[in-house]
Design a protein that fits this description.
This protein has 769 residues and is α+β, with helices and mostly antiparallel strands. Helix content is 43%, strand content 15%. The chain is built from 25 helices and 24 strands. Helix 2 crosses helix 20, helix 5 packs antiparallel against helix 6 and helix 17 packs across helix 18. The two termini are 20 Å apart.
Length: 769
């Protein structure tokens, strides 16, 4: 009589192929998941299940008519890749056509970032994580499609599928290493054998296991050696690096006032996701050394904590607090980019520490392209009425932001009794706060004495600058009006020039800029304004970093480029904190891209965004502010991104259910027994062989129906088998009746309890397959 296919096989061919692939795929996906900080089987298992389902669906297309096989397999492969993307954790909305641009840009950024990030990846930028998860899921699904692709009587492209699975295993090994290379080599060899030849292993367990173990041991050593090799099988880093920024740029943020030498190639420095545009600060220049603004080289007297940089009532204005996620692109250095006063930093696995200047931070080691971090900051944006009502420095806060070091034109000679010959070449001018009427004093730190401030100013190169500050301050009703007068002063004959004429010998650069040259760039304008503010009793400092950059609506990110490098002023207002002023003319390349000053209008704020920008501190030209706003709106606003909610979740649920139903039908169709027998009697005999195997009573090769009748014995079995024998070899045209089928099912379950009845029902269902 006919017997089952491949009677000597350890497992049915379809089951063996699926099991072999699933085991090797699970190993590869688990290894790949090691490159993600929270990876593991929880990440690998859904991806493997989606891949197996995709492979079964593609393989089911081989049962269709010849003209439909390739289109059906291609459609199933596409559906399988979509399922793989969802199994990797990708947001469903990103698969809709409206978000393809966001997805492509994000994946591109993730690939670029992978050239420099540390693995396992634990940064705050989600795109490298998404790229790793999605890449592994798509790779294992691609392997499943290749292994199951219908090719007539052959079995797909198993060796191409094997290559894809080995890439899954090898990439993390070469990227982050493995402590168990021999174990991994043994596992790869054994599972490769299962994948390629499990369906051909003999039925006898001893021989099959021996063959498998021998081949695995033979392949384990070379594979383990390959796992330990210095060069990667697939160098993802070099490949990803070719997609990214070719080189990084380091900036020197100290003021020099010479010709501008900053990089101006339009190269991306940072990408920042935040709800509102800001000036992105990297360093504070808090001290004036007599010629230029420099970083403070000693710790702040109130400590490095951010609270020392904030107004004592800062928590009462939560609307000025914000968050941002920063991804490093081409910027090189250890500074953390923040806005206003950065209150906290989350850099993932990297360690960050506060600098000497409260509110600024730096990483424990240099940041590279692909690194990311998130910051929380406090950046006041008061309106003119709030600023006009505020004092400055009267409460004693930020008193260290008032002194100015004055170089002396005629150094003071040492006292006759000073045996150490201490010549005084500079004094520290200590202006009183704006609203405080007190004598102007100058501290002689070398001698530990205090001298009249006016006498020191007359003996310094900044006498004209002092007089200008007093003239602008005269009649000003509040510190804000004084600051506005300084801002307007730069409209009188000043121009933007990146290569200004140098100051004559002996003349400080800012003094020359204010009265003679009147040409310079952001360093000149911000440095001169901060100096005038301090002379007028308003605590001030210079901030350096980047202007907000350009906004990409679809990605919801601000793209900061090298031409956005900038320098501006921060002035202190009691009850508010540090407020940004930007005196640089709008002709500056950085200023031309500023959309932060002309921020998108807030709900119920009243007026347009351009009107708000015109009223905001730091914007001197309302018409220019409106032009800048138009440029920003050409790229979209953050509100546009927030309002794009995408399709309803119910639509995804219905689509997923429909997809699962189609896949289930296709899988069941493939599982049907498409044997070479076509007559009803032959199909019934094949059905009998399958039923006996499922019931735990497999038929040895060569057993006839008569022998089965004698072996099974009971009346139910004899009647069913007799009807089969008559239909196969006799003159009967029909097979067993439904009653005979039920009787034979009871015979199979006899003496086996309820488990036997369930197993018999599964072995011989009421309807033939």
């Amino acid at each position: 009589m006919p017997t089952a296919r491949r009677p000597a096989a350890l497992l049915p061919a379809s089951v063996a192929r699926t099991v072999g692939f699933a085991l090797l795929a699970l190993l590869g996906a688990a290894e790949w998941a090691r490159m993600v900080s929270d990876g593991g089987l929880a990440l690998a298992l859904p991806c493997v299940l989606a891949a197996v389902l995709a492979g079964e669906t593609v393989g089911a297309a081989g049962t269709l008519p010849l003209r439909l096989r390739v289109p059906a397999a291609a459609l199933a492969a596409v559906v399988g890749l979509v399922l793989a993307a969802l199994a990797s954790g990708l947001e469903p909305r990103l698969l809709t056509p409206a978000h393809w641009d966001e997805l492509s840009v994000g994946i591109g950024g993730g690939l670029e970032a992978l050239s420099g990030v540390t693995l396992p990846y634990g940064g705050v930028d989600p795109w490298p994580d998404i790229t790793l998860r999605l890449g592994g899921a798509l790779l294992v699904t691609l392997a499943a499609v290749l292994a199951s692709w219908p090719r007539g009587e052959s079995r797909g492209f198993p060796f191409f599928a094997l290559a894809a699975l080995l890439v899954l295993v090898a990439t993390p090994v070469t990227a982050i290493g493995t402590p168990r290379s021999l174990v991994l080599g043994l596992a790869i060899a054994a599972l490769t054998v299962c994948f390629l030849w499990l369906e051909r292993l003999p039925l006898r367990p001893g021989l099959g296991v021996a063959v498998l173990a021998g081949i695995a041991l033979a392949g384990a050593l070379p594979l383990s050696a390959a796992a330990d090799r210095d060069g990667p099988w697939f160098d993802y880093s070099t490949w990803a690096e070719g997609l990214g920024t070719p080189a990084s740029v380091r900036f020197d943020w100290d003021h020099s006032y010479g010709p501008l030498t900053w990089q101006r190639e339009g190269r991306e420095m940072l990408r920042i996701r935040t709800s509102r545009p800001q000036y992105w600060k990297l360093e504070n220049l808090e001290d004036f050394d007599g010629e230029r603004w420099v970083m403070r080289g000693v710790p702040d007297q109130f400590g490095p904590e951010p609270q020392a940089d904030l107004d004592q009532n800062w928590a009462e204005n939560p609307q000025w607090a914000g968050e941002a996620r920063v991804t490093v692109r081409g910027l090189r250095g250890d500074q953390i980019a923040g806005a206003g006063t950065t209150t906290s930093v989350d850099a993932g696995a990297r360690h960050v520490v506060p600098t000497f200047s409260p509110g600024t931070w730096q990483a424990d080691r240099e940041l590279h392209a692909g690194d990311s971090y998130s910051v929380k900051f406090y950046a006041p944006r008061p309106n003119p009425l709030e600023l006009a009502a505020a004092s400055s420095g009267s409460r004693g806060q930020q008193a260290d932001a008032l002194p100015v070091l004055l170089p002396l034109l005629r150094p003071e000679l040492p006292d006759p009794g000073d045996t150490r010959g201490r010549t005084v070449r500079a004094l520290t001018l200590e202006p009183p706060p704006f609203s405080v009427h007190a004598p102007l004093l100058a501290g002689n730190t070398r001698r530990g004495t205090t001298e009249p401030g006016l006498r020191a100013l007359r003996n310094s190169p900044y006498w004209r600058t002092w007089r200008l500050a007093q003239r602008l301050k005269r009649g000003a009703r509040n510190p804000y009006e004084f600051a506005r007068r300084i801002d307007l002063y730069f409209d009188k004959g000043f121009r933007y020039d990146e290569r200004p004429a140098p100051a004559p010998p002996g003349v400080p650069p800012l003094e020359h800029f204010l009265f003679d040259g009147k040409a310079g760039y952001c360093q000149h304008f911000s440095g001169a304004m901060a100096l005038l503010l301090r002379f007028g009793g308003v605590p001030a400092r210079v901030a350096t970093g980047f202007s907000p950059g350009g906004f990409r609506r679809r990605q919801g990110e601000w793209v900061v480029r090298d031409r956005d490098a900038h320098s501006w002023v921060e002035a202190w207002f009691d009850g508010i904190g540090w407020v940004t002023f930007d005196p640089t003319p709008s002709a500056t390349p950085a200023r031309s891209l500023i959309a932060a000053i002309a921020a998108p209008s807030q709900p119920n704020a009243g007026g347009t965004a351009a009107d708000a920008a015109a009223r905001r501190p730091g914007v001197r030209n309302p018409a220019g502010a409106r032009r800048e706003l138009d440029q920003a709106n050409a790229g979209g606003t953050a509100a546009d991104v927030a309002g794009d909610s995408g399709p309803s979740p119910w639509l995804y649920a219905v689509a997923a259910l429909a997809l699962l139903a189609v896949i289930a039908v296709l899988v069941l169709w493939r599982r049907r027994d498409r044997s070479v027998v076509t007559s009803p009697a032959d199909r019934a005999i094949a059905d009998l062989v399958t039923a006996l195997r499922r019931a735990g009573r497999p038929v040895p090769p060569g057993v006839t129906l008569i022998e089965l009748e004698r072996r099974l014995g009971g009346r139910g079995g004899a009647g069913y088998l007799g009807a089969l024998r008559s239909a196969r070899y006799g003159s009967a045209t029909s097979g067993p009746t439904p009653d005979q089928r039920r009787a034979f099912r009871r015979e199979l379950a006899a003496g086996l309890g309820w488990r036997g009845r369930v197993r018999a029902w599964w072995a011989l269902p009421p309807t033939r397959r």
